[in-house]
Amino acid sequence: MKKDWYITSSVKLKNHQIFKNDALIFKTEPHISTQDFLKEAYRFLEINYPKFHKMDVLCKLGMIASCVLKEEYPNDTALVFQNASSSEVSDAQHQESIHNFPSPATFVYTLPNIVMGEISIKHEFQSENAFFVAEEFQAQFVHNYTQSLLDHKKASAAICGWLEANLDDYYLFLNYIEPHGEQIFSAATLSEKYTQ
What we know:
This protein is an alpha+beta fold. Helix content is 37%, strand content 26%. The chain has one domain (6-195): Thiolase/Chalcone synthase (Peroxisomal Thiolase, Chain A, domain 1), CATH 3.40.47.10.
């Protein structure tokens, strides 16, 4: 039976800024590199995950967002992510390394779903997850897939949204979905929040 689910927390990372529930909680100077922004955010948020410094940009974005979104999660929290460029940044770095000596440390990040593994390790998730690649954010698809997991009791909560990092820029938009709250989880709400 279909029931209502609720968005109880949202996070955005863009333009070297972090927003939680539309409130700016952290920013750096716009001229610094993305890597420096991520390092400063990691320190500011006091995240304890030593492997962070070895991760690719996509994983760092996801890790920071998951720590901002909520402090503690049920271990069956599902992950449903989407982006347009898959693992483009790591693909380019790995391609470059092939000319010298291929790096296993880079190769491991040439799959976009590795970010889900890192988030799952950090938060001790044992859950359903799926990473989809599409030209643009498909709010209806992400909503339907997430809703189905929740309605069929494959998870008691979920994190879903858009997690994009390409060679030029990044944009992350994630939402925490659970059974109780005020803002109904719907494709229309996802789409509206994504474009705000």
